[in-house]
Design goal:
This protein has twelve helices and four strands, in the order H-H-H-H-H-H-E-E-H-H-H-E-H-E-H-H. It has about 325 residues and is mainly alpha-helical. The protein has a domain at about 85-110 and about 165-320. The protein has a two-stranded antiparallel sheet with strand order 1-2. Strands 3-4 form a two-stranded antiparallel sheet.
Length: about 325
């Protein structure tokens, strides 16, 4: 549509041009999936050097995966859904329940990484200090063998999984530390307005900026030629020139010769972390709005909090 090119030099015009183009971009992406997903059936582009279509589709996927076009397309859908939800509050409650359920299920699942981390640490201590073996093998039939230092460094991955994948769950359960110098004494509806403001002004922008850089940081370690966040400001045609030489090249470089070498997994976790924060921010915004409109009786409505089963532990949980 080329509306953005004729936005007139003002920020407001630029924003409205993107929002007007958003429905067109959404429909175009849905109707032409091969333009950005043609690379999916292939496990390796290294075997398809010279295949312009597969390379270009992957480059479009990377380019638009952290672009203003995607941001405003999602913003447009959020605005439309929110506008409709203001007249049909059941839609907003459905979004709250769905997003919070997703955050709880994800967090409860990946929280088991904490147990795996403890068990693996015990295994490392026993094998290294008692049996004095240089490497540890795991598996039945075909075993997976790595140096003890590899298993020791890999413990950091479990910690990263807990931090990144349990962020929404911890927020829903009220486990994050917060300072209530202003928030605590104000009235109920003022609290909800502060929550609405904080979710959209603080949570979303921080997560979006982190995602923008994290997305390109991830892909520059998965494919060659390398891409960076600065490529997002270039014209797409300039980037598509690299399609013929494009191939997957996952970097597996450790900090030590026998150390953990799957650090690209941390980059994937960073991207997933930002997506979970954005989804939780939307759920929190909708919940705060609905509780503000419906009054204090709707506070914590449909909220699925864990029950510890111990009154003293529940009291400590509420204090923190």
């Amino acid at each position: 549509m080329n509306l953005v090119e004729s936005w007139g030099g003002t920020f407001i015009g630029w924003v409205f041009a993107h929002l007007i183009e958003a429905p067109f971009n959404i429909v175009n992406a849905i109707l032409n999936p091969s333009s950005w997903l043609a690379w999916v059936p292939y496990t390796s582009l290294s075997d398809r050097i010279g295949d312009q279509a597969a390379g270009e589709s992957l480059l479009r996927f990377i380019y638009y995966g952290a672009s203003w076009e995607l941001f405003f397309a999602l913003l447009f859908l959020f605005i439309v859904y929110t506008f409709i939800g203001m007249f049909r509050k059941s839609l907003l409650w459905s979004a709250v329940r769905g997003l919070e359920a997703f955050g709880n299920v994800t967090g409860r699942l990946f929280a088991w990484a904490g147990l795996l981390m403890v068990l693996q640490q015990i295994m490392i201590v026993f094998m290294q200090r008692i049996f004095a073996v240089p490497e540890i093998s795991v598996g039945f039939g075909s075993s997976f063998s790595k140096d003890v230092s590899w298993w020791s460094e890999e413990l950091k991955l479990y910690n990263a999984i807990i931090v990144c994948m349990c962020v929404s769950y911890t927020f829903i359960q009220g486990g994050h530390v917060r300072v209530d110098l202003i928030y605590a004494p104000v009235k109920f509806r003022v609290k909800k307005i502060i929550d609405m403001f904080g979710s959209l002004i603080f949570m979303v922008p921080t997560a979006v900026v982190t995602y923008f850089y994290g997305w390109f940081f991830l892909w520059r370690h998965l494919v060659t030629p390398k891409l960076s966040a600065s490529d997002a400001s270039k014209d797409l045609d300039q980037i598509l020139v690299k399609a013929r030489a494009l191939k997957f090249n996952v970097e597996t470089i450790g900090f030590s010769p026998n150390g953990f070498n799957g650090y690209f997994l941390f980059k994937i976790l960073l991207v997933l972390f930002t997506l979970l924060v954005v989804l939780q921010a939307i759920a929190f915004f909708y919940r705060s709005y609905l509780e503000c409109v419906e009054g204090q009786d709707s506070e914590n409505k449909y909220l699925d909090k864990d029950v510890l089963g111990d009154p003293q532990a529940e009291l400590v949980k509420e204090i923190h």
